[in-house]
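USER: For my understanding, would you kindly supply a protein sequence with its structure tokens?

ASSISTANT:
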Amino acid sequence: MSAVKFGVTYFPTDYAIPPADLGRECEARGFESLWVAEHTHIPASRESPWPGGADLPQEYWHTLDPFVALTAAAMVTTGLRVGTGIALVIQRDPIVLAKEVASLDHISGGRFLFGVGGGWNREEMRDHGTDPALRWGVLRERIEAMKEIWTKDDAEYHGRYVDFGPMWSWPKPVQKPYPPILVGGDGPNTFKRVVAYGDAWSPIVGRSSATPFEDRLAEFRRYCEDHGRPGIPVTVYFVGRLDEEQLRRFAGLGVERLICYVPPAGADQVIPRLDRYAELLAKL
């Protein structure tokens, strides 16, 4: 049974435990990483259905900027890794985002993990000028363009959605060639995206699904093998009540990292949850 890295994720809202406080508490209990969600806003029209159920929780429109929140956590910790879970790349300028990623990796001493995705709220995308029908092409080009900025002294990129001539941009990331890119989602083309421009796959497990995760994981590994990229690691976001059996299940499956949620609430609710997770982690 492989060793599993254990992370914590939450929505860093204006009414939840501050990210610096949560970062300290996570590191003190031996967790490997802290992850935060992103939504710039939620359009009041509420046309797009939420994948998690009928009623969208209010934390979705109360989130802090993820890079500000993660910087706060990174500055009060020394070994805790900090990650976006996920960054909505299609809603961000790639040149600015490349600077934010590199800056956070620089000031954290190389502890940033870059979770990315295309999102689900189509109205939110449109408000940022992205056509939802084109978002996967936009996502790919922005990732490719950022890789050029991170790895080249004279960076340039010429695509359909991203186009810029030779430029200079520092700092470069501490991690080489750049922070790991974890591709979120579990749609029909997710595996293709992971293999094309990702360093890991990060699905949400625990919501209703027609395919058991064990089967989906085996399918992913076969796909990676068939397309010349065997051994791509998997980070799982687990939705549900974690117990020792579930923890050992994921360890036995060989996932690299298991991330569990804490509520966007005060320390009085979050700390007991962290303590319970820490007890489970000690058993593994």
Remarks:
- The longest strand covers residues 81-88.
- The chain has a mean pLDDT of 96.
